[in-house]
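Person: Show me a sequence?

Helper:
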Amino acid sequence: MRWRVGGVGVGVAVGWNIATLGPIATRLAHVYGVSLTTVGLFVTVQFVMHMVMQVPGGRAADRFGARTSALAGLGLILAGNGISLFAPQPALAFLGRAVVGLGTGFAFVGGSDYIRARGGSPFLQGIYGGGSVLAPGVAVAVIPPLADWLGWRAPYLSAIFVAAVCAILLALAPAAGRTVRHAGERLDRGFFRDRRLYRLAAIHAMSFGFSVILGNWVVTLLEHHGHSKSSASIAGSLTLLLGFFTRAGGGALLRRPDASRWVAASLVLGGAGAVVLALPLPLWALVVAAAVVGLAAGVPFAMAFTGAAQARPDAPGAAVGFINAWASLVIVAGTPLVGLTFSLPGDGRIGFVVLGALAALAALATPR
């Protein structure tokens, strides 16, 4: 039981750090004396470092053990948030977010590999992934009132608390050991030519990455087309929060012989939901579409992570990191690109339609 709680806790700690700054971005902009765009760049730096560290983090898990790698990542998360606590200086914020990104890169892959190495089922992998999307949803609700009490330091202090608790839980859990022979050697050339990994990367990028991009812009889209901020926020939260349930369900789904059809269908439904969000429909229909996007986005997670580890038993951690790096790249590149479509005719609708079409096309990559 301890190893299950400790492993899932890593996903919670990583997820919490995804959404700490956004809920009070305006307040941070005033305190730091910068624009909202600069506050957004704090987060971008974190995601870039997170993306860069995916494969190295996976190799570290293969070589030194998943729990050791995950604990190192949690330590970096603690250090990065600690750096930002000293003063509201942009340089410290950028440095702190960069260190946090290093930590989330190590921790997320290490936590997933720890569950695999301890014999965790695809269902538990789904719970792990679900925790990583539930945590930012909770952070969005909790951090604004915390900021009324703790001020601008609330995001960093809350992240330190969550990471510290999860690190203690993992430290008390049994080690997984090193389960890969010759993990210290370089990855062979065939690793980066393995078509199976690219297929899994496609379904993960266009489910998880897809939902994060939509979650960033759906509130703005609905506001620009006449809906209130409160109703738009409710719809936006659904694109992330509901993935908690279907990530776990997607793990149980892998027991079915027709699991690939369900995963492909979820990508098509998610893409259709994004297109519906771009249409001039009543609010209730848009909320339903946002819910469909959120539910559909969680289904491929377990197949992607479990499939990557099974495809490369010589480097399971690196394989999981590889496919997750592609999702991070989609987020880093796709979020500003969809933002640019708000200056085109349709005021953002073109971006949602294009993203929906790409998600539906990703269904063709679903492993059989």
